Automatic annotation (TrEMBL):
<dbReference type="InterPro" id="IPR040498">
    <property type="entry name" value="PriA_CRR"/>
</dbReference>
<dbReference type="Pfam" id="PF00270">
    <property type="entry name" value="DEAD"/>
</dbReference>
<dbReference type="GO" id="GO:0006310">
    <property type="term" value="P:DNA recombination"/>
</dbReference>
<keyword id="KW-0547">Nucleotide-binding</keyword>
<comment type="function">
    <text>Initiates the restart of stalled replication forks, which reloads the replicative helicase on sites other than the origin of replication. Recognizes and binds to abandoned replication forks and remodels them to uncover a helicase loading site. Promotes assembly of the primosome at these replication forks.</text>
</comment>
<dbReference type="Pfam" id="PF18319">
    <property type="entry name" value="Zn_ribbon_PriA"/>
</dbReference>
<keyword id="KW-0067">ATP-binding</keyword>
<comment type="subunit">
    <text>Component of the replication restart primosome.</text>
</comment>
<dbReference type="GO" id="GO:0006269">
    <property type="term" value="P:DNA replication, synthesis of primer"/>
</dbReference>
<feature type="binding site">
    <location>
        <position position="556"/>
    </location>
    <ligand>
        <name>Zn(2+) 2</name>
    </ligand>
</feature>
<dbReference type="InterPro" id="IPR041222">
    <property type="entry name" value="PriA_3primeBD"/>
</dbReference>
<dbReference type="GO" id="GO:0043138">
    <property type="term" value="F:3'-5' DNA helicase activity"/>
</dbReference>
<dbReference type="InterPro" id="IPR005259">
    <property type="entry name" value="PriA"/>
</dbReference>
<comment type="similarity">
    <text>Belongs to the helicase family. PriA subfamily.</text>
</comment>
<dbReference type="InterPro" id="IPR027417">
    <property type="entry name" value="P-loop_NTPase"/>
</dbReference>
<dbReference type="Pfam" id="PF17764">
    <property type="entry name" value="PriA_3primeBD"/>
</dbReference>
<keyword id="KW-0378">Hydrolase</keyword>
Length: 841
DNA sequence: AGCACGCCGACT
DNA sequence: GTCGGCGTGCTC
């Protein structure tokens, strides 16, 4: 009895213990979701989940009332959350992780540094084709519903459709009825218990499948059978010929596969190939085609470095022994690329990977071509014009370790590579490295150094005009510093001269905006069959349109800017929100027909130049002319083939655009660059003009540059003509120190946006009040509306915070986070959007 | 960031 | 009278 009892209790006890253990061994996963919400989200794991879950794996999870989101497994733990009930993971989307642990660490670092959520980083860093969103489907659950007379026409239509196909998507349902009544109709059907809504995930990425052709496997290495087939074809000469051609092609291609389409291009016809296939001579099969395959076939040796280059190369290597970052300051055409190539070669020889960052536009140009030429299919190129499918393939290939080198703009930083040995940031001064439109507002140059540090890689910053920050860091010994101040082949730097526009106007030495000196020079160049580049940093025809009689200027209805006149499309456009209207025939204010334009854009220069040089082939290069995926490549090709005599461009032409046949560059008006209300204006103007000048005389002879300006005496312009980089920087750094700007402080810009101006200003003022006690007056500026105070119907105001060198940036950021949260506890302030921009440019 | 719930203007 | 506008609150 006692035994029985004790046995019984022990069984009960064991059950209890098992249950207890089970409870205690409940596991949870932290999931990163693509939401702008702080932190990760906790889901509980079943035992089977636990078997297959891996950090970095893609999962789908329910979030909110019904939606499924794609998330990434961040971590696994046993801490049961007390404040809310966890849900289960819906599904594992892949067997293996698509994100590495290093990437997760990197994302967290970025979220912390740039004061945004981990979800913001994930959303931006991960290809969107891999972020599945659930689609809502309608499912029939009561096919036997009988009281049909109670259904309205729309309900009946959906019911009938579902009887044929059990499941339809909400979109299909909307097609059956009309768009507007779809949701109400479905609601009624749900209420009647006839249908149910289901969420389904669909993969957005689709592999590209092509038809390929090869010699039939049965004939391969079987000479006798092959001869038989060939003899059978004696009466079909075309087929015989094609078969023999295929053999030749296959030998040439070695292991590469031959697409049917490519075979057709080589002379075979589809009909012939089909007949051959029917006779068993060839085989047509399907295979996945890579969208990111390299075309490059002949790999060439890297050319020998010159003495100067070798010297620089050795210095870089020496500096890398003690410093993780080196700044290579080399004038345009000094041959920085060759040095990069040599370094890359050495790094990949050690089985390390290289990340090569370029400003956006340069990714499509010659540099990429040159790198591919040396490293062939080991080069992965990322570009923002890639479509979603191409991005996915690049991601997967990178994850597989298929590439030794990844080249790309700032987003390439997020590809899943490992084992980096070297990061190159070319044109490091370029402001396009800073992401400004979507969160995270990161600076790719800075994050490249960080990522390099995480993987023990070295970072090489390259520029002809280094940023003030990098120059400062180099001069202070934080980075290694190597100068390369001689052009390749010892060609002299272009001679830069200034043209005084005031004087030219007074002496009538000018036609519209082209001074006669500039005109004569262009004429001279064209006579020598040279191509000319003209720089005007404004697109459109004229930035302002003005009524001659009343002075009215058409403005954007959504933004606080005047509309730019585009003659080509005969429209007035807003460059901030995209608003466009037809050019009005008369002034909307007074009805006058006399409308004037003020200021000049590329379109107007194009027209003026074409008038002066009616025979010349004039082209324009700005975002308006560069629409479409291959517009840029096409233009480069045309320029190379000398189908363009004069190219007029915005700052686009300063990036990766080097051609041997250009000996002269003209700047139409430098003034707009100099008078920018920004503490970086002088730095940017010097860099831009120097870069523009660098386009001239790159190969055989010394180039010439003419800069037109109303203030030729301006110190920056004077310094540009004499290539006085160091003195310019000295002045700039002196001012920065005086006014406590970077690199002598760190900036955080808080940008407030709201459609109601009063509420906006009140909120910004309130946050300043909350922050006031923690900063001295010099370090907390604003709120102040930026020069364009309203974009897309949202009013904007900025608060600037300067962090002194002795302050902890982390503590300041924590403070900002806390104060914004505090502000948001009050409902009235909550609707104002606050963007935190760390290290604004 | 989505998405649902809830309260006020312009329409059949 | 409704439809639908977007303000507000919540999501593991």
């Amino acid at each position: 009895m006692l035994n029985y009892l004790s046995l019984n209790t022990s069984v009960a006890f064991l059950n209890l213990l098992a249950q207890y253990n089970k409870m205690n061994t409940t596991y949870f996963a932290e999931i990163i979701l693509p939401l702008s919400l702080d932190g990760t989200f906790t889901y509980h794991l079943s035992e089977t989940d636990l078997q297959q879950i891996k950090i970095g794996q893609r999962v789908s999870v329910p979030f909110g009332t019904q939606k499924l989101y794609t998330g990434i497994v961040h971590s696994i733990h046993q801490n049961k959350p007390e404040l809310y009930k966890t849900k289960a993971i819906h599904a594992f989307l892949d067997d293996e992780p698509l994100v590495t642990q290093t990437q997760i660490n990197f994302w967290e670092w970025i979220a912390n540094y740039y004061v945004c959520s981990l979800g913001d980083v994930f959303r931006n860093a991960f290809p969107s084709a891999l972020k599945l969103e659930s689609q809502t489907f309608v499912r029939l659950i009561n096919p036997n519903y009988e009281t049909i007379e109670e259904l309205n026409d729309y309900e009946f239509l959906v019911f009938e459709a579902l009887k044929l196909r059990e499941i339809i998507s909400v979109e299909e349902a909307a097609l059956i009825v009309d768009d507007k009544s779809a949701i109400p109709t479905l609601k009624l059907l749900i209420d009647k218990g006839i249908i149910r809504l289901d969420e389904k995930l669909s993969e957005k990425y689709t592999p590209k499948i092509d038809n390929y052709v090869r010699l039939h496997p049965d004939l391969k290495g079987n000479e006798q059978q092959f001869m038989e087939v060939l003899n059978q074809l004696s009466k079909a000469p075309k087929q015989r010929e094609a078969l023999l051609q295929l053999i030749t092609l296959e030998t040439q291609l070695q292991d590469k596969l031959l697409k049917v389409a490519d075979f057709v291009k080589q002379g075979a016809t589809n009909a012939v190939i089909k007949s051959l296939a029917e006779k068993g001579a060839v085989e047509i099969y399907q295979n996945q085609t890579s969208r990111v395959e390299n075309e490059e076939k002949d790999i060439t040796e890297i050319s020998q470095l010159t003495l100067k280059q070798t010297e620089a190369f050795n210095q870089i290597k020496e500096e890398f022994k003690t410093k993780s970052t080196v700044l290579l300051h080399g004038v345009t055409s000094s041959g920085k690329t060759e040095i990069y190539l040599k370094l890359i070669e050495q790094v990949i020889a050690k089985r390390n990977k290289v990340l090569y960052l370029l400003p956006e536009i340069s990714v499509t140009t010659q540099i990429v071509h040159r790198i591919k030429k040396h490293f062939g299919d080991k080069v992965g190129v990322y570009h923002s014009k890639f479509n979603q499918n191409e991005r996915v393939e690049l991601w997967q290939k990178t994850l597989n370790g298929d590439f030794d080198i990844i080249i790309g703009p700032r987003t390439a930083l997020f590809l899943p590579f490992d084992n980096l040995g070297l990061v190159i940031v070319d044109e490091e001064h370029e402001s396009s490295y800073k992401q400004m439109d979507i969160k995270p507002f990161f600076h790719a140059r800075d994050m490249a150094m960080l990522l390099g540090g995480m993987m023990n890689a070295k970072t090489l910053l390259g520029s002809a005009t280094p940023s003030a920050e990098s120059y400062y860091n180099a001069k202070n010994g934080k980075y290694g510093y190597i100068e390369l101040n001689e052009r390749f082949g010892q060609i002299k730097l272009p001679e830069i001269n200034l043209i005084d526009l005031k004087k030219a106007q007074k002496e009538k030495e000018i036609t519209e905006d082209i001074s006669h000196t500039l005109r004569d020079e262009i004429f001279e160049q064209l006579n020598h069959k040279k191509q000319v580049i003209l720089f005007q940093n404004r697109r459109g025809y004229a930035p302002i349109m003005e009524c001659k009689s009343c002075g009215h200027t058409p403005e954007c209805p959504n933004c606080d800017v005047s509309l730019t006149y585009h003659k080509f499309s005969n429209q007035l456009k807003c460059h901030y929100c995209g608003y466009a209207q037809a050019k009005p025939l008369r002034c909307v204010s007074c009805g006058s027909h006399e409308l004037n334009t003020k200021g000049i854009g590329t379109e107007q220069i194009e027209q003026q130049i074409q008038t002066i040089f009616p025979e010349a082939k004039v082209r324009r290069m700005d975002v308006d002319a560069m629409r479409g995926k291959f517009a840029y490549e096409k233009l480069i090709e045309d320029f190379e083939n000398k189908e363009i005599d004069i190219l007029i461009g915005t700052q686009m032409i300063t990036k990766g655009f080097d051609f041997g046949n250009v000996n002269f560059v003209g700047v139409i008006r430098a003034d707009s660059l100099l008078n920018f209300p920004d503490f970086r204006a002088h730095e940017k103007a010097f860099q831009l003009l120097t870069q523009v000048a660098g386009r001239a005389g790159r190969r055989d002879e010394q180039g010439k540059v003419l800069i037109q300006s109303f203030q030729p005496e301006h110190q920056i312009l004077q310094n540009v003509t004499t290539y006085s980089y160091a003195p310019t920087m000295k002045d700039i750094l002196y001012e920065r120190k005086e006014f406590l700007y970077p690199p002598y402080s760190r900036l955080i810009k808080l940008r407030f946006k709201h459609k109601n101006k009063e509420r906006l200003d009140k909120t910004a003022e309130q946050l300043v009040i909350l922050l006031k006690s923690n900063f001295d007056a010099r370090c907390l500026l604003g709120p102040e509306a930026p020069s364009i105070g309203r974009i897309n119907n949202l009013y904007i105001t900025d608060v600037m915070i300067k962090i002194r060198p002795n302050q902890s940036p982390q503590k300041v950021k924590d403070l900002i986070r806390a104060k914004i949260n505090q502000l948001h506890t009050i409902a009235a302030f909550r609707s104002v959007r606050i963007d935190v921009d760390v290290d604004p440019v």
